Amino acid sequence: MASSKSLMNLLTFTFGSAIGFFVCYLLFSIILEEQVKIQPHILHNDPHGQHSADTDNNQLQGQMNFNADFGQHKDENKNIAEGLYQKVKILCWVMTGPQNLEKKAKHVKATWAQRCNKILFMSSEENKDFPTVGLETKEGRDQLYWKTIKAFQYVYDHYFDDADWFMKADDDTYVILDNLRWLLSKYSPEQPIYFGRRFKPYVKQGYMSGGAGYVLSKEALKRFVAAFKMNKCSHSSSIEDLALGKCMEIINVEAGDSRDTSGRETFHPFVPEHHLIIGYLPKTFWYWNYNYYPAVEGPGCCSDLAVSFHYVDSVTMYHLEYLIYHLRPYGYLYRYNPDSAKNPEEQSKNEAEEDNQKLKQKISEN
Amino acid sequence: EDAGEARALYERVRILCWVMTGPRTLETKARHVRATWARHCNVALFMSSEVDERFPAVGLPVQEGRHQLYWKTIRAFQYVHRHHLGQADWFLKADDDTFLVVANLRWLLAGRSPERPIYFGKRFKPFVKQGYMSGGAGYVLSKEALRRLVAAFASRTCTHTSAVEDLALGQCLEKVGVEAGDSRDTWGRETFHPFPPESHLTDKFSQSFWYWSYCYYPIVE
């Protein structure tokens, strides 16, 4: 019949054009993909389209040996830093785990860890290739304190005599060792004291934030290890930094003030942006109530001689390494003597005297 | 901290920076440029399509939009030439999402004469024989280069050929004999960067990414 035939025709037509559209769509999407590559100007002024999110760890293939080219900085005067390296010996141990070796710990190893006098990576399992120390614990947040105790125990047993100060950091902490040495150079490792980002609740003298890293003096380490043998401190807690802080108070290890001579914080529980940008951290955030000293946001938040940042992802490790140890504005002589900043006249007088002395020495040598 | 050398360069190598912005991004982006690196320029101007007395921003006779970028650039350089030529030796264009380390730019330009027709930036190779400079990474013209650019438009040697600002400018500058300079440092490393540091330091750009075929000098990751 005529109507069913035309219906068939209509159906065939519809079906045919559907297939046609589908095929065209496929073709166009393939062609357009090619075109996007040929029309890069669209991406030109929009590089953010190409800049992948920080969490995309696929982009970071392998570590980078940042400081391999020593020749590039050969005109840099590192005398003070090298002197401090000999005088203030720091052993760093980094809290990590088997699942984070490649993702996180590797980048710590490639950047700041090399500046420690001794560096150890603490994991629940031993790994001879990385290498990591096996603490023979389980992994997990509730194991953190137990891992910390065992890590310090291991350090005490094997490396006690090799360092004056013992720093704990996470595998997402970035530590500026040179500034840490500057901070510690004014204290004796025989003092029972420890430093970090001081928090005020729960512990009378305050306790140090775990993530921002904390550093124990030799005496503090000795007392800490002894405290467990004598059962003065409890072994179990799910909050590592708090438990350590409580123990420190019990064994009379002082919670030190790590701020610089202008009163600015040096250990930071977050990355620089979180502290530098006013209003970044909401006023209801726990941070404001935890800080022992009045918390500052904006440019006064952070010392020029900052020691640590936390929640630093792998990409930011290299970013910080570049900004701190490589990028420089030309034309500034960084002759840093912060304690004398208060009296510049006296400082230049002292420096002139120093120079005179050196000259006299040179002349007498000749 | 001894900033003596930096201050000396500030007097000797005078840089005028003009920042490409617009009414909608004045408060969201340009403001932060003004609060940070723009302070180090000898003169800093913010170029928009609308005048803003308070900011302050210059109102150019153009419309907003990507297709107007080259017009904005031409008008901006003409404005600078008419009102500020005597105040600087070098004339830099940047976007409101570009970060400049001005002290290092001065070091780069310190050994050069602003009377020579030359300009610097992140050099790209396609389309223009001597290469052209990436718009987003910022580029800086010598005084002579600026004079030639403005004269070229006055005499119609150059016209508005395309909306692709950096490419069109590069073509014009080549036409009037302005040299595309090599801005790399003494170890051959790039100083102008079209992406943020993290990208250059850690990203592995895929082989098909346009960047590979654009860079004038070999890319180092």
TrEMBL record, chain A:
User: What does the record give as EC number?
Assistant: 2.4.1.122
Q: From the UniProt record, give the pathway where this protein acts.
A: Protein modification; protein glycosylation
Annotated membrane topology: Single-pass type II membrane protein
Which parts of the sequence are annotated with region: Disordered?
Answer: 341-366
* Source organism superkingdom: Eukaryota
Keyword set includes Cytoplasm: no
Instruction: Tell me where the signal peptide lies.
Output: none
> Required co-factor?
Mn(2+)
UniProt similarity note:
Belongs to the glycosyltransferase 31 family. Beta3-Gal-T subfamily.
> Matching PANTHER family, A to Z?
BETA1,3-GALACTOSYLTRANSFERASE, GLYCOPROTEIN-N-ACETYLGALACTOSAMINE 3-BETA-GALACTOSYLTRANSFERASE 1
Name-wise, this protein is: Glycoprotein-N-acetylgalactosamine 3-beta-galactosyltransferase 1
From TrEMBL, chain B:
Entry's Pfam families? Fringe
Q: GO molecular function terms here?
A: glycoprotein-N-acetylgalactosamine 3-beta-galactosyltransferase activity; metal ion binding; nucleotide binding
List the EC numbers from the record.
2.4.1.122
**Catalyzes what?**
an N-acetyl-alpha-D-galactosaminyl derivative + UDP-alpha-D-galactose = a beta-D-galactosyl-(1->3)-N-acetyl-alpha-D-galactosaminyl derivative + UDP + H(+)
> GO CC annotation: what is one?
membrane
Q: Which Gene3D superfamilies match?
A: 3.90.550.50
**Sorted UniProt keywords:** Disulfide bond, Glycosyltransferase, Manganese, Membrane, Metal-binding, Nucleotide-binding, Signal-anchor, Transferase, Transmembrane, Transmembrane helix
Q: Which InterPro entries does the record cross-reference, listed alphabetically?
A: C1GALT1/C1GALT1_chp1, Fringe-like_glycosylTrfase
Domain of life (superkingdom): Eukaryota
Per UniProt, residues of the Fringe-like glycosyltransferase domain are: 27-180
Q: Classify the protein's membrane topology as the record does.
A: Single-pass type II membrane protein
Question: Pathway listed for it?
Answer: Protein modification; protein glycosylation
Where can this protein be found? Membrane
**Family membership noted in the UniProt record:** Belongs to the glycosyltransferase 31 family. Beta3-Gal-T subfamily.
The cross-references to PANTHER family, in alphabetical order and at most eight, read: BETA1,3-GALACTOSYLTRANSFERASE, GLYCOPROTEIN-N-ACETYLGALACTOSAMINE 3-BETA-GALACTOSYLTRANSFERASE 1-A
Q: What is this protein called?
A: N-acetylgalactosaminide beta-1,3-galactosyltransferase
